[in-house]
CCA-adding enzyme (Marinobacter maroccanus), 373 residues
Amino acid sequence: MQAYLVGGAVRDELLGLEVKDRDWVVVGATPGEMLANGFKQVGADFPVFLHPRTREEYALARTERKQGRGYHGFTVYSAPDVTLEQDLKRRDLTINAMAKAEDGDLVDPFEGLRDIEDRKLRHVSEAFAEDPLRILRTARFAARFQPLGFTVCDQTMALMKRMVDSGEVDDLVPERVWQEFQRALHEQAPRAFFEVLRDCGALEVLIPEIAPEKVFELAMAALGCVHDQSDAETEERFAAFLSPLDDSVALPRAKALKAPNDCQNLARLVTAFTPQIRNVDPQYPEAEALLDLLDQADFWRRPDRFSQLLNVLECALPSDSGPLNLLRTASKAATGVDPKALLAQGYKGKELGSAIRTERLKRIGDAVAPINH
Ligand code: CTP
């Protein structure tokens, strides 16, 4: 039996990048031999094992053939006679289809090294089309490696277009789409992910509301701005992406994408706040309107989310910095009201509620007042 380092580890090493996960392919072995050597089997679908000491993944060389539509129905064939080249051939991109032998020799039947040098994302074979998720993976690699000069080669783009036209993308399950989407939002150049999806027609299928050019540009500008705040969370990136949409459209889309609740909630707030922020008159701000916004955002219980909301709105509404600064000022002023102090003064129940509100209104009014003069 022989083990080869494969996939992302070989690619990243050749690119001079830090290698995170090391995956191996084993040729010429049976599951029984792996178990006898102390490997632990993981996952029922494929013959994949964990190394007894390093815990790295060792998969027996396999071929995969698709049977039905969508993401189901792969027939996996694994036996000691499956060659390394056959295993590499079932992979998505040439840069992901290289192997390195234990003596350091590169096994590169599909010219991945040449594509690394030419900065090309190219499919290995027509089998690429058997897995529509690969469209999203390719777009994600574009987002990761665009700063290094990588682009999707014409033939691969043409193949992805044909896959979209044949309806393959319609069958992708939202969970897998979200997984790729979420990772793409954190890549170096997230815009490239959406450009690739747009250019092959997949964006029109997956998130049609964002596809029109004007909306697309607004979404990219907001996302780019949030991305520049290097530690932006997924929910901020996601909400920025959906920010050009009306809340009646953004929410159902966020749900259909099965975005986690925090992402859905921030997107809901951003899109609901947008028209209201535009209604705030920066010359004559009303304390009541500002307090209403703080209530709507549940600022009192969720100050961190409120600060995320402001971050995203600042990126989504660059020409509304006046109202947004007022909202920030109002939040700082109102936060000084201490319900405990009012309780100690004898306020209770409903009266306590209105005393808190009155005090908050007064402080907000004082804080934004200078702007009125
Ligand atoms: N692979 C594939 N098709 C897929 C998923 C994976 O061909 N739909 C292959 C690729 O050869 C890939 C390898 O399996 O390199 C490992 O997949 P994964 O760990 O998801 O990706 P990496 O390439 O290691 O990239 P990352 O750095 O994002 O983990």
Remarks:
- DSSP finds 18 helices and eleven strands in the chain.
- The two ends are 82 Å apart (CA to CA).
